[in-house]
Amino acid sequence: MKSFLFHSFVGICFGAFVMVMVCFGIIGFGGAAELDSDLFVKNGLANMFCGWFFSVSGLIFVKEEWSLMKRTILHFFTVTFLYFVLSFVVGWIPFTIPGFLIGIGLFLLLYFMIWVSFYLYFYMEMKKLNQSMAER
């Protein structure tokens, strides 16, 4: 429960941070003089929810009695479903076939890159731990 609350807090804060950075970018580089308050609130809440479910869904990987393949598949389908429902409802991805194809392509690319990065990081950590245990 403690881990769930911690991951929830971190995910919500990260989602809010992303929203603020996007707004700074829109104002600073996009030339927008003002923001629509309804759109700001809708996107802010959606970003916080998105940050929350990506962060909390990572707890699936703590379940060590499951294979890495099973955990990855469960995580992938969980976040994919939630992300695309949220994206279509909020309007981040247009509800068209080309919009969906571009969205799924970018999502798959980013998911793969992040998954491989985490896998390599934890693989290197495991090698370091095994090496330090062998030296004892």
Automatic annotation (TrEMBL):
Transmembrane segments: 12-33, 45-62, 74-93, 99-123
Keywords from the UniProt entry: Membrane, Transmembrane, Transmembrane helix
Membrane keyword on record: yes
Domain of life of the source: Bacteria
Species in which this protein is naturally found: Salibacterium salarium
UniProt-recorded name of the protein: DUF3021 domain-containing protein
